[in-house]
Amino acid sequence: SYELTQPPSVSVSPGQTARITCSGDALPKKYAFWYQQKSGQAPVLVISEDIERPSGIPERFSGSKSGTMATLTISGAQVEDEGDYYCYSTDSNSNLWVFGGGTKLTVI
Amino acid sequence: EVQLVESGGGLVQPGGTLRLSCAASGFIFSSYDMYWVRQPTGKGLEWVSGIGTAGDTHYPGSVKGRFTISRENAKNSLDLQMNNLRAGDTAVYYCARAALPYCGGDCGMDVWGQGTTVTVSS
Questions:
Q1: B40 phi/psi in degrees, rounded to 5
Q2: Which of A22, A31, A97 is the best residue to mutate to test the B interface, defined by the most B CB atoms within 10 Å of its own CB?
Q3: Counting one residue from A and one from B, how many pairs have CB atoms under 8 Å apart?
Q4: Of A69, B10, B20, B101, which one's alpha carbon is 20 to 30 angstroms from that of A25?
Q5: Quick check: B107 and A49 CB within 8 A?
Q6: Tell me: the pLDDT tens digits for A71-89?
Q7: A16-25, B85-94, B97-106: range with lowest mean pLDDT
């Protein structure tokens, strides 16, 4: 089975830059997507196709990818950005979709 | 307004069956791949199934052979038939739409329902 690996938690102070990584063997050839989920709510897509920011997502959210690692960067993180973040991608055959284990972002 | 509304969750005994439905509105349903994603309480997201615009289906090993995803474009409806349910299937089940029409499975999900809860317990 295919796996995406994320750190369990990231903590930053308000205004600092938060970086959340996601590693997977197929990422060099497959897009990474990032979701934000706040407690009790459905996930929200914050980054699409490695680097694209959907309409309505603040500019402080950005995505990048290098080799087998994708990174979600929140520049000038705010308290309202706290929540769980999941990366998502497919295996090399595009037959299986996988979420990373999730990263809990704390902004304090 | 683009909207997905799940229904059909509930309490079922191990080995039992349940059928979830997702009612779609506000977009051309037949043009989009659709997915089911689940989340056990306090745990992460797990992709459960996907169906393309041509009716092609995909499942992870954890549910393959037990779950069946289907769509009825004329009714803007997505279903998930779940058989031989196990305690490990207990979760909130979300219906989700692909981010782009006719994306062929590589464009993520941009619209999610609020979820329906499935509890498998004796």
A1: -65, 150
A2: A97
A3: 64
A4: B101
A5: yes
A6: 999 999 999 999 999 999 9
A7: B97-106
